[in-house]
Amino acid sequence: MTPAESRALSAPHPEAAAGPDETVSHRTPASAPTATLTAAPTATPVPVPVESGADDRAEPTVGTWRRRWTRRRQDLAVGGLFLLAAVWVTSRIWLDPAGRAASLYTGDPAQVQFFLAHSVRVVLHGEYPFYTEQFNYPDGVNLMANTAVLALGIPMVPVTLLFGPAVSFVVLVTLGLAGTAMAWYVMLSRHLVRTPLAAAAGAWFCGFSPAMLSHASWHPNIISQFLLPFIVWRVLVLTRSRRPVRDGMLLALLVTAQAFINEEILLFTAMACGIFLLAVLVQEPARWRAAWRPLGAGLAACALLAGALLAYPLYVQFAGPMAYHGLSDAVQDYGNDIAAFFAPGSPTLGGNQRANVNLSPNYSEENAFFGWSLSLLAIGVVVWLRRNLVVRALAATGVFFAVLSLGERISWWDRELVTGPWQFLVHLPLLDAVVPTRFGLITSVVVGLLLALAVERAWALRPADRRTVRKLTVAGLAFALLPIAPMPLRMVSRPPVPDFITADRWRAYVGPDQTLVPIPVPSMGNTHGMRWAAATNLDFKIPGGYFLAPRNGNTGDPGRFGGRPSGVGQVLEEVATTGRTPKLDDRQRRRFTDELRHWRAAILVLPVRQQNAEPLRRTVEDLVGPGRQELDVWVWDVRTLTDRSV
Fold first, then answer.
1. Which residues make Cβ contacts (< 8 Å) with residue 347, sequence separation at least 6?
2. Helix (H), strand (E) at residue 637
3. Which of 37, 97, 451, 642 makes an SS bond possible with 280, Cβ 3.0 to 4.6 Å?
4. What is the distance, to the nearest Å, from the Cα of residue 117 to the centroid of all Cα atoms in its chain?
5. Residue 377, H or E segment
């Protein structure tokens, strides 16, 4: 069976197949998926049929069923490998999902668990999905302006109800890694390459790159990229579609779903598709004449349908209560160091966390870190396959996003060299809410596609000793990928949810319009109270928390982490960190009472085993009087202080 016939069999629908005047070649097997955008081959062309005839509707032959069953077995084997790898990566947290978290920045898992619990309330109680007052009470939080992961949380509701949000979190991380790799494998094996090893190698890197591993501990919304391969493919289909309106509407459904997973990744994908198509057209402008009509019609249909579906959620995000415009300057300045592209990532076999200091903003944002071997191999692949139009366009796309990921100031080993182009883009609409270092995620995908194309080309070579060439290909893959092989994510123990919460003892104190105030007050650095609320499916409200909101709670201001500044919250946070008991005056006591009234606090809760629990207990008693121990917490009933009728 020729390569062209193989692709014809796997075409998902007539529009996904090449036209009657489009050909593929043994020399350029990678050019078939984008036939209208790539150069015509120069050796022994084989036409690819567009429409299915009557023979296609006939009963499949035994050979056809055998080929299909072989492909199913291959798919199952590859999917099983990806799932095993994902379980390996998350194995340490699987041992105790509720009692373990990433070793740094434990706030992100707590935030995601809170959002998963919110999805339960949306499904079971019909709660408003885009805004909540269950934390940061009474101001609330604009969930559309945060990563509320509704498209992930709602399908996970049964798991969250049965096992809790901590288990749902690790399930999402595991499926995010394996699902992304499998989605790329399906797309690559059906539409780009015909060698299973080539598809598996490219998909492996797309799903388990150092950048994906870096985000796995904290950001399941970022690593859940299983829709992106199909979004990219549908955009390419539009360039040669005979039914652009229908295909544009299919693309709109994918775009809408991805918007409720992560809008930032969706924006990156749209930019990447645009840069790739532009790179192709710059090299062969004549392609534009055939592509612009279906592409324009399809994108218009996509924009209309997706715009209609997302109009109200986006209105809430940008103009609703607690909406913000742009991120803080500190986040906008996050960028990769050039040296980061040549160092292995921290969560990999060859990674060294200490050596990677200052090469990325923090350990949760290692969005490059390919290692020397893979970086050199990627450059070598581009040089080797430089005559392939797709390879040149991919290389241009990867370099473009790699440069953007360097941020406003380009540096080498933490030494600033020149001003980066991101400085001129950072204040543009939409881009002002982007974390620039994450552009490296697109470069990672490009490297994965280049790996797939390189293996495919090497596998198709016909030298006298083909077995030797294939052995060298596998050895080259091992040389490039082994140093950045995924390792189990590092975890640390975290305090359990108090028995006072899990036994529902808090219900005797807290009414529907009152709050339970964890000590210290929830903030970016103290998120245990958010886990308490998530464990009850948000049955009680809390003040503060970890989220994005406008500065000082003024809708429309630039964004920051957390709500209105809390004077007493800062005092208690300092006590929790240092263990030193401050001297308080009457003014501070009155301010604390005012804040409690603003929060409509019912009780203050301090776990007995909280770090620096004794200094915290003395500080709270100095503010509101003595508390009492109940089960494993100290409780202060402040309803008489906060009741506005008194």
1. 89, 210, 213, 214, 216, 217, 366, 486, 487, 489, 490
2. strand 633-637
3. 37
4. 19
5. helix 371-384
β-pair partners for 348 = 486
Reduced to 3 DSSP states, what percent helix, strand and coil does the chain have, rounded to the nearest 5?
60, 10, 35
Residues in the chain: 646
Q: What percent of the chain has pLDDT over 90?
A: 72
**Predicted confidence (pLDDT) per residue in 310-362, tens digit:** 999 999 999 999 999 888 766 777 999 999 999 999 999 998 888 888 898 88
Tokens of 97: 């999902």
Closest of 153, 167, 174, 186 to residue 78, by C-alpha: 186
pTM (predicted TM-score): 0.88
pLDDT in tens, 367-410: 999 999 999 999 999 999 999 999 999 999 999 999 999 999 99
- Residue 176 contacts residue 224 (beta carbons within 8 Å): yes
Higher-confidence position of 505 and 32: 505
The mean pLDDT of 570-575, rounded to a whole number, is 93
For the chain, the first-to-last Cα distance in angstroms comes to 86
The answer to whether 524 touches 107, Cβ cutoff 8 Å, is yes
Task: Map residue 605 onto helix, strand or coil.
Answer: strand
Judge whether 490 and 364 are in contact, CB under 8 Å.
no
- The mean-pLDDT minimum among 57-61, 395-399, 428-432, 468-472 falls in 57-61
Cβ-based neighbours of 327, under 8 Å, separated by 6 or more: 432, 433, 434, 435, 548, 558, 559
Token couple for 397: 């796309």
Q: What angle do CA 459, 463, 467 make, to 5 degrees?
A: 60
Two tokens, residue 199: 């598809």
Residue-wise pLDDT tens digits, 420-454: 999 999 888 889 889 999 999 999 999 999 999 99
Neighbours of 134 (CB within 10 A): 23
In sequence order, what DSSP letters do the residues of 508-548 get, joined into one string? Answer: GT--TT-EEEESSPPBTTB-HHHHHHHHTTS-SB-S--S-E
- In 3D space, the residue among 381, 373, 431 whose CA is nearest the CA of residue 401 turns out to be 431
φ, ψ (nearest 5 deg) of residue 17: -90, 160
Measured from the Cβ of residue 398, the count of other Cβ atoms closer than 10 Å reads 24
Closest C-alpha among 406, 398, 417, 404 to residue 359: 406
Interatomic CA distance for residues 477 and 381, integer angstroms: 12
Q: Is the peptide bond before 138 cis (omega within 30 degrees of 0)?
A: yes
Q: Could you count the other beta carbons within 10 Å of the beta carbon of residue 125?
A: 9
Sign of the torsion formed by the C-alpha atoms of 370, 201, 349 and 105: positive
Query: What is the amino acid identity at position 201?
Result: A
The pLDDT of residue 66 is 63
Phi–psi pair at 386, nearest 5 degrees: -65, -20
The string of pLDDT tens digits covering residues 280-295 is 999 999 999 889 999 9
Mean pLDDT over the full length of the chain: 87
The residue to which tokens 């390459």 are assigned: 193
**Residues 6 or more apart whose Cβ sits within 8 Å of residue 311:** none
Location of structure tokens 């002002």: 432
CA distance linking residue 376 with residue 378, whole number of Å? 5
